[in-house]
Specification:
Oligomer: single chain
Distance between the termini: 137 Å
Number of domains: 5
Strand content: 25-35%
Radius of gyration: 47 Å
Number of strands: 28
CATH topology of the largest domain: Chitinase A, domain 3
Number of helices: 11
Length: about 575
């Protein structure tokens, strides 16, 4: 019985379609529908009262065309099931999906009947339609939003009056593309909820996160309606937008701060007028990197609060600690505005700076001294012109090790106040006891300045750990030797040990060493006393003939009066 039924149906279909060699079974009772293409995905089917757009070719049984929407270059739009179409079409379009294709055979009583259409469709004509469905919507429809991807971290969403930057692909409901921001190479930038967009897009963008992807389907009455748009969007067309929200902000926004890491020992915070050295990565809200100090292997150095950097960063660096890591989100009106900067920062872009503060200082800063250990009963401290021996470790404030006296066999030696070390270290070594340990924080204007030095970055704040090993009392500036009391009354005669009327270098040296040994005077402290004595002799040997005469020998006090020379 089943086999017989299949044959019967097959024969009936052939007779309906006019297969040759078979008899005419008589008039059709209803529309014959052949769904010869059904899309794999059908989100919606045509129902009574729906508004539709479709293309069709209309022919008679012999294949002669009587009408075609393709020939007119415009789709047909109308409402199904309310009597605006011939009954056969009303029935034949029911249940269609977008992009579905159907062959419809409409008998005369469901078409134009016994009257026909003068000059076009004869009376009692059976009509053959080849239909493709392009669009379906209903006046009760709302914007349909489907989230395709959403970032894990989303602490803010689009609200009305926000300014958004997004990429999109725009298609009709049948997939026909009509526009794309990607093809233009730039985002679409506009305000939301203020009438700059079609109503459906205004609604569809609300609640989005930066980086979110959405599909937004907009019915015609919330898009371009009966007029359509140019040649690309027909009248009464539903629109499908695939949207990627790149970034957004509000004109009333201030900067946003996220404290990623704040050192526990933060004793000072940066204020206006401070000079800050920091590393940063600068990115857009979609994660695109536009700049990085790390790529240049050099910190960015600037004053804050004085207009040398964009206003958002001027604000965002206020209150930072040395070593702090901070994220600063800067809206475009506090960054590069509508014009952007170069080819990497688009107009109206929100900028994200991930900042690591290396150090900061103020041009008025003194040396900061922290005493770690000071021996009890200390009553002798280092003074200007003293000769000191000390150990030190030098680093940047981020802990980067620079130099250490422990890398050498002996401690560092210097006469304080002789410009042999940076001024900040010189100041930090004053008033120390032997055995005392200190930490010195030295600003660059008392260190190596804007230019830096070998291994020391420009404008770097330095941290010294110092320990005073020993000290020797110095001599006043300009002196190489001083007497503890009055000098001998007949100085030249006493220096001239062999009484030959002249004093060679060896005789000069023997006399001075004797004075030191007897406690009558002292040399300028040095690790090389012989060199100091040699300098003294050279100063007294005015004509450089290898011997000092009575006329050449002068005390420092006498030279100061004559303003001739300044050494003994």
């Amino acid at each position: 019985m089943a086999h017989g039924s299949i044959v019967l149906v097959f024969l009936l279909l052939l007779s309906i379609l006019g297969a040759p060699g078979l008899g005419d079974p008589g008039p059709l009772e209803d529309v014959v529908i052949d769904r010869y293409y059904i899309p794999k995905i059908c989100l919606r089917e045509v129902q009574m009262g729906d508004f539709i757009r479709y293309h069709y070719n209309g022919t008679f049984k012999d294949g002669k065309k009587f009408d075609s929407s393709y020939d007119r270059g415009a789709t047909v739009a109308g409402v199904v099931g309310v009597g605006r179409l011939i009954t056969g079409m009303d029935r034949g379009l029911q249940g269609m999906c977008v992009n579905e294709r159907r062959h419809l055979i409409v008998p005369p009583h469901l078409g134009y009947g016994s009257i026909g259409v003068a000059g076009l469709i004869p009376p009692d004509a059976t009509l053959y339609f080849d239909v493709v469905m392009l669009d379906i919507w209903n006046k009760e429809d709302k914007v349909q939003v489907t989230t395709l991807g959403r970032p894990g971290h989303c602490n803010r969403t689009v609200q009305s009056s926000d300014f958004v930057r997004y990429h999109y692909n725009g298609t009709l409901l049948d997939g026909t593309p009509f526009d794309s921001s990607y093809s233009k190479g730039s985002t679409y930038d506009t305000y939301v909820g203020t009438g700059w967009l079609i109503k459906g897009m205004d609604q569809g963008l609300l609640g989005m996160c930066a980086g979110e992807k959405r599909s937004i389907i907009i019915p015609p009455f919330l898009a371009y309606g009966e007029k359509g748009y140019g040649t690309v969007i027909p009248p009464q067309a539903s629109l499908v937008f695939s949207v990627l929200l790149v970034d957004f902000h509000n004109p009333k926004d201030s900067i946003s701060l996220e404290h990623l890491e704040v050192p526990a020992s933060c004793r000072r915070r940066a204020v206006t007028g401070d000079f800050v050295r920091y590393h940063y990565n600068g990115s857009l809200m979609d994660g695109s990197l536009f700049d990085s100090s790390y790529s240049r292997n050099q910190t960015y150095n600037t004053y804050i609060g004085k207009g040398f950097i964009i206003p958002g960063m001027d604000q965002g660096l206020q209150g930072v600690c040395v070593g702090e890591r901070r994220r600063v989100v800067v809206p475009p009106h506090l960054a590069y505005g509508e014009n952007g900067a170069g080819d990497k920062i688009p107009g109206s872009a929100v900028l994200i700076f991930d900042v690591h503060v290396i150090d900061f200082h103020n041009p008025e800063d003194p040396v900061e001294i922290e005493t770690l250990y000071r021996p009890e009963g200390c009553n002798a401290t280092s003074r200007h012109r003293d000769f000191v021996r000390y150990h030190y470790n030098c680093s940047l404030l981020d802990g980067t090790r620079l130099f250490s006296s422990h890398d050498y066999e002996k401690p560092q030696e210097v006469t304080l106040g002789t410009n042999k070390v940076i001024e900040g270290l010189n100041r930090g070594l004053l008033d120390m006891c032997t055995g005392e340990r200190r930490v010195l924080i030295i600003p660059p204007h008392l260190g190596h300045g804007e230019s830096g030095a070998r291994g020391v970055p420009g404008s770097a704040v330095l941290r010294f750990e110092v320990e005073l090993i020993s000290m020797e009392e110095g001599v006043p500036e300009g002196y190489l030797f001083i007497w503890h009391g009055d000098p001998p009354a007949s100085l030249y005669e006493q220096m001239d040990l062999n009484k030959d009327g002249e004093i060679p270098a060896e005789e000069f040296s023997t006399f001075i060493k004797g004075q030191v040994a007897e406690g009558k005077g002292r040399l300028m402290p040095s690790s090389d006393p012989d060199k100091v004595i040699a300098d003294m002799f050279r100063n007294q040997d005015r004509n450089q003939d290898g011997k000092v005469t009575p006329e050449e020998l002068k005390l420092k006090s006498d030279e100061d009066q004559d303003k001739i020379h300044e050494e003994l």
